[in-house]
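User: Hey, my collaborator sent me this sequence without any context and asked if I could get a structure. I don't really work with proteins. Can you help?
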Amino acid sequence: MSGDVKKVVLAYSGGLDTSVILRWLGDTYGCEVVTFTADIGQGEELEPARERAESLGIREIFVEDLREEFVRDYVFPMFRANALYEGTYLLGTAIARPLIAKRQIEIADAVGADAVAHGATGKGNDQVRFELAYHALNPAITIIAPWREWDLDSRTKLIEYAEKHGIPTPKDSRGEPPYSTDANVLHISYEGKALEDPWVEPDESLFQRTVAPEDAPDSPTYLEIGFDTGDPVAVDGERLSPAALLERLNDVAGANGVGRVDMVENRFVGMKARGVYETPGGTVLLAARRAMESITLDRGAQHLKDEVMPRYAEMVYNGFWFSPEREMLQAAIDQTQANVTGTVRVKLYKGNVTVVGRKAPNSLYDQETATFEADSVYDQRDAEGFIKLNALRLRLGRKSRD
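Assistant: No problem. I've predicted the 3D structure and written it out in structure-token form, which is a compact way to encode the shape of the chain:
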């Protein structure tokens, strides 16, 4: 085994699991390890990850700020589809994996590595997402998934391994954590352990980005979100970069208790799992984007987008970001966004997002046609023939049964 892999790029968080993996890779494969740590807005200082990798003898260490690329090239394209998995989940974890995998492959190519490794378990979705991306981007790369190979199948064994090999153990690693978590600029997810019983309400102390709706301000907050060809570009008239815009919405929406989800979802690997998510800015963006499309998209295009959305969301959830079918749908979706430009006004109040205004330079909403007052552009008598033609098959069907 040791002769098969010479150099591996590890997706490295700096935590206990990936620090153990770092040493285990060298011991098991006898290979050189390169670490890659991505800043995608998880809200943590990443220099400790660099320092920990250095203390473990790693010579090539990559720590990169990918926040803008993440939001611009992954989150915003996904939001153009108004993607929701199983009608609820805004795909915050799923959409981050393709970018991390892509950079791993690029770094592997740059440093001459012949393998990549990740710290995802053999029970979850992330192993699939990482590895489908690896296969799509470099079919020749060797993939190492330690959780499917080693016998370190408990927290206790991980800590024992770390102590045996002089790996620094974070102070909170000795106690059993109440749940596992994953964070980026779009969301924070919580799952496992204390959350495994779907009947038990999560403790309020779990939430990090949102206040409890009942503790949110007693007066509403209004926001105006500006869109340009399908993507949000401004908040209250101030143009912001993609990541800065999402961070601004996270702050304001979170302060109003917006963006909590508690769901039981169907994992790609076959089991059901309970997840709790905080996606404050994304929740606002979804409502605002749909409102923007409501006055700028033709009915047929709008309805077809809604029909393909569940399939698109499933592709992202299951890890097929780099698949031909996702790219095909993305091209079709993006083509619809040329006139999705304008401003949406939303009201945030105690966990709720309400659209209260929308306007667009190329709006398809015609007040003269839609009005219930007298007008000269719509002949109501035309509706009779329209209804009769649409009723023809219904009448013939009833006649055949009589």
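In plain terms: The chain has a mean pLDDT of 94. You can pass these tokens on to your collaborator as they are.
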